[in-house]
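Interim report, section 4.2 (structural modelling).
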Amino acid sequence: MSKRKAPPLESPSKRVKPTPVPTQSVIKVARVPPPKPPTTPRRVRRLPTPTSDSEDELDVIQSFSARRVKAKSDAEDSPIRRTTKPAVARTRRKGVVKTGPDANHDALSSTKLLETRTLRSGKTTPTTPTKPRSPKKPVQTSKAEANNSPKKPTRISPVKKVESPKKAARRKTPLPPSSSEDSEELSDVPESREPSPSPLPRQAPAITPLIAPRPIAPLNATNCLDLQKRQILRVLQHPLDLDVEEEGSPSRIASQQLSDLLSGTVERGEGNSCMLVGPRGSGKTSIVDQCIAKLSEQPIVLRLCGWTQQTDKLAIREIAYQLGHQTGKSFLVPDENQGVEENHEAPSGMSALITAPAAHLPALISVLPTLARPTVVILDALDLFAQHPRQSLLYCLLDTVQSCRAGTQTKGLAVIGVTSRIDTLNMLEKRVKSRFSGRMFRTAPPVQSQDWLRLTGRILASQVDNTIIEMDDWKEQWTSAVQLFLNDPKVCTALKETFSLTKDVRVLVRLLISLVVRLSPSSPFPTLSLLETAIATQRSRPPFPMLHALPYPSICLLIATVHSQATGHPTFTFEMLYERVRDQIRSSTAAPVLFHGSSIGMPQCSRSVLLSAFEGLVSAKAIAFVASSAGMAKEFVKYRAVASKEDIKRALQVKGDVNLTKWFTKATQ
Amino acid sequence: MAKHPGYEPLTQELSSLLTGSPPPFIYVHDPISSGTTAGVISSVLKTCASAPTPLDFAHVNAVACFQPRILYDTVLNQLAKWQPRWSDGCVVWGGEEGERWNQNIDGFLHGLKAVNDHLKKTNKVDGQLVIFIEKAERLQDNIPELIVPLARLAELSRLNLSVILLSDVSWEEFRPPFGGSPDPYFMDVAPLDKKAHVARLNSVFDKLCAKSSHTNVPTIYHPSLRNLYNNFAEIVVDTCYVYVQDPAEIQYVAAARWPGFAQPVLDAHNDSEDPDTPLEPPSEYVRMRLIRLFKPSFKAALETLYPRHDHALNWAASHAPEPNLLSKPPSETKPLSGESSKSPNDDHMADLPRMAKFLLIAAYLASTNPQMSDLRMFGRGLDEKKRKRRINRAAPKSGIAKLPQRVLGPNIFPVERLLAILGALLEENDADRRPEMPQYTIPGEYTDMETSRVNVFTTIVELADSGLLQRASSTDKLDGATFKCGITYDTAAELSSQLDVPLNDLLWDPA
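Predicted structure of the assembly:
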């Protein structure tokens, strides 16, 4: 992982400068063990042509970090680097790396630091003219150090001395074969367990006084972790951020078009209609909300949803309610009186609208343009409205929109249909369709797996706003841990895999929620294994995820259903299963073999317990009725299994009961 | 936070979700013990509600809320912490202002907003609302139209709200069609391990101890018995864990068995010279002896109590050990087997009149044997050899395996067939016990007389009314009434042993 980080560091500008002599020697020593065949080729390939897919992916991440690196290296070059605030974690770390060795200059034992260095410089070595520079560099840094933190030497040395040997060992082993699984795991472990060691050295010049260093007071760490978790969870509520999306992405265009349209309605009093089409979770609703929020004048917003307003009557009633609420509350009381003077129909509609019977209410829609503010009607799940008989609501709305003339006394009216069904337009009746403007704005979820990775990075790296002193410390650790996590090729693969299964961002959100929620003070940083757990629970779940958790009698019955099916009886009664289970238990306990004083056969199970277990299975819907069974004794009601053979097989694998597995695999009798 | 041994992963995950920004829709799946989990979730919610970040929650049960209106009102009342009072006509929240939130889902959404505003006023902060629905699988049966709105509730109400459904059915089972609802955030509850079960039992014991500790009279929940209870719990869990994993069930068994288990210790204490001394923890020897005596009854308790053939109190009373068990020499005491569990039906069977018993056996035979076999099985005067039933145990080479009728359920038979078989049974097994009737000279004439009595027909009707026979034809039909047998093999065997009828010989395909 850290290898990954390394490449960006060797941007040419930097290369000339760093790599002091002392490190060099160390470098050589350290470099010998890790032959890193994977890294070098990758790097080489990557630089010239970022064409192939996987490379591409990597590129994203690296370009992400590369930007920072650049900033860093720039900062480095300038003597002001310490003072530059925006130079974030990386810069600081860089500085540390450099300063580290000089602190330890004589005592080369600070393996940890050296090691990171080794990697970086290790790659650069061939090209770098190291020797001459080396003396200069340390001096520089030490000066800077001196300026910054006089305490530094005292702080660093103890930490390093204590930790160095072990850490070095740990660090080094995982590094070389970063591509292989085991090493991944290994490298994860130290990272998670000791949040401080790696970041600590980086912080050398940091603001935090001596106390903070390594053993982050557990309380603080917990607090910071909690804050970080909450922050991420908050961000996850609205994962898609239009501002971050690149220019020209479909959602951005849609948003632009929609706000143009809305501003036409609000500012010029136009009647507009449009449809927002896009797959689920692609941010349709949030685009609408954002566009409305951005408007210069807040219109009356009527929100209808096809899932709740299942008939036009309900919809009209809801319109009346919302209208009464929004206009009555905010400003309409005086305005309404005006309305009375100007227009005699409107007020009668307004005052009566809450109590008026639904049948009279279609007239209400024609009132909309006459209100004091422009109106925006949002129809969520437009396709469902199109299924209402005669589509009268849609007809009324769109007809009113069409007859809405800009420049007259009336205010504007916009109807926005939101749907995920692409053939919605064809569902509209001819008379409705002809009144619809035909504007369709499309939104799209992220279209490339890179976008997902970027999104993941953005969400995980979201910063806590709080200005607690310890927070800075934490932030650095967290950013670097997230960086490490995202650079892990396995993580990328897992995310890409998920992406190829579903492009729904909400799945990603669930994965990340699960990942973040499981972070605990003992393992505060995201790891691959956490991601895998998240994937197992959140993504494309098996139909019976918990079958293995069922107690023994239930599993017995399920196996019996499989055997029953094998004999050509896919429907079965409890009696049939019971006989099978009973015979099996009998035959398995027939052999008088004892182990540790107990029989090795299957445990005895009485009929009543089995019957209760059977009822449990029915209520858990692992078994379903075949037909209605009035007046039938419950033992003889016919059922069929819903849990398939495969499900049961998987459950048995998890459960790992030898007897049951044997029975399951044995030929049916 | 209250301790929930074994539920730490759930409580940890849930509370960090709830204290942060919870996803709008959470689905908790627990196939084993959703009742216990509901309690745990509820206590997590309570803990979170008392935390600095305001969180208001409603905990409703979908079994109780079987109508949309009940659901709406319950949720709103709980969120607003409104207690309907009998004295003012059980007005629901907002009812006093003349608002009605329970008309339909729209009204409910408005009600939620109103509640939120109300809470904002009292809390001064924009809080989090949580609606927790347990037994959510019932929503599908009772109010399926609400599943989609509930799943999208946060979006629809535009509030900071999250809905938690808990069910023992997986979400796939009632996911609405056409992508109506977004997929929830899934949480799975793993079953408890043995240690957690024991810990749960112990914590219950401690609670009961605390309750009963004010009295001086030692009770079965006395602190001195804590160690003994721990041992007891371990063994109960060991015995039951294979069969049941629901902590509530295991707790039920333990609660039924413990009074009997601890009673000898109390007896010994009361019998001692000085009953006023505080109760001492029993010695190791006593403990071993108790365990040896009671261990066999644990499984028996499970087998009776888990299917609820009996309730715990009754079972504990009927399986109480003899008084002063410990004062007897060990050689005289036998382990309690706990045998007793006949199904309750069998007790009533003994009270049936003799003819009814014969009728039931005949009905069982008629329902189980194929009609074609009757002549072979019951025909008289044929060769004894031919009477033998054909036993064909060989599995068929191919095709669908043939199953015996006894596992497929009773066949329907006409009443005439029942009477014919009854006649055969009576002729074989009852004829010798009748009083002499010299006027019947033809063989079988007497039996014919017996089976055609009105008494037999009224008995059939009575049996059908009590469900031991099941009518297969409509009741108003006079001719060609058909029936099915309503008793199990076990009951039939029990009856035939009472009457000395060799049931297995008469079955075409015995077990």
